Amino acid sequence: MSRLVAGNMLSACLADFGADVIKVERPGHGDDLRNWREAGHDIYWKVYGRNKRSVALDLKAGEDLQALKDLVKHTQILVENFVPGALEKMGLGPDVLHAINPALVIVRISGWGQTGPMSQHPGFGTLVEGMSGFAELNGFPDKPPALPPLALADMIAGMQGAAGTLTALRVAERTGRGQVVDLSLFEPIFSTIASQATKYMATGELTSRTGNESSHTAPRNLYRCSDGKFVSMSGSMQVMAMRIFDTIGRPELKTDPKFADNDARVQNRAELDGIIGSFIGQRTQDENLAIFEAAQVTVGPVLTVADLLDHPYSTGREVIVTLPDDALGRVAMHNISPRLDQTPGRFRRPAPRLGEHTQEVLDELRDRPSE
Fold first, then answer.
1. pLDDT of 100-133, one tens digit each?
2. CA of 240: how far to CAs of 177, 216, 278, in Å?
3. Torsion, Cα of 152, 155, 160, 161 (10° steps)
4. Quick one: the chain helix, strand, coil %, rounded to 5?
């Protein structure tokens, strides 16, 4: 019963590994993710709606509401992301749902959580990315804070939520008791930068935006090559930084007090980036990659998605797959991750049309033996 990104990411993680995910959508409208269109195509829905079935139910109608309750009887997990309290107003609060199915895991997604002073506030990912401290850390020091160019808070919440859902499911399978998973968009993304709170409490200092640099390790940056392309480099281990100095022909930097250890390199990272950038800037991307890879330095190319489609890593590991699609013939999307060697996930069906499986699912319910 979720809409937009977080719930669809969460349920996609489960669907890819065999869960029968049934999207309950509003007739004539459906999940709002269907309306996120690129060049006239519902690109986002094609990716995150894969491996699911769609049932269109009008939950204001008694017959359809009863159909949903019948579904709950045979369901292990229910995912919803209405405003906290909305499920109760629909007559579908956790007490009602657990009376129908005591082992049901109910995943409740909201911007700020089911409790607290902001529980009733609008909670889109953009607001969360701004308030969590992420935007303030993101970008360059001479520019304003920057939002991510994707639904990052929702995606992180969906993936973290899948782990929480499976934990609750494991408990339900062992005890017969379901529970509520209270998943906010805020807390998962904050968990990725929570060390900043630890730093502030310990030192009274806030981390400023550093662009592509790092405030805790150096060298770490993107460097422009002579052909206008970029390479990424990280010397986060002492041995790697020393290897970089040898590779660029500057072994004396290994004993220079400004660069001899990580703390010194972080303090002098602008000068260090100038030295490394000068070496890289005299060579093409391919030349740099060949030199640094031969020296076993942690370096990689900065690619566009178009580059990645044909990159040996992508093709060799099948990072991107193409699947059949009614409108486009075939569409490209990410492969299933993570990879399980004994019970791997698989693609079973493309993203469904709105209500495509309504009759099929209702027929299945009618064919189940009464309890």
1. 999 999 999 999 999 999 999 988 999 999 999 9
2. 50, 15, 19
3. 130
4. 45, 15, 45
Q: Which residue has the tokens 């911007």?
A: 111
Neighbours of 162 (CB within 10 A): 20
Which of the residues are catalytic? 154
User: What does the alpha-carbon distance between residue 150 and residue 280 come to, in Å, rounded to a whole number?
Assistant: 30
Residue 192 one-letter amino acid? T
In tens, the pLDDT along 240-249 reads 999 999 999 9
Q: Do the Cβ atoms of 193 and 137 come closer than 8 Å?
A: yes
For residue 63, report the phi and psi dihedrals to the nearest 5 degrees.
-65, -40
Q: List the one residue out of 51, 44, 18, 53 whose CA is nearest residue 166.
A: 18
Name every residue whose Cβ is closer than 8 Å to that of residue 129 and which is 6 or more positions away in sequence: 135, 147, 148, 152, 153, 189
User: Structure tokens of 266?
Assistant: 């972080």
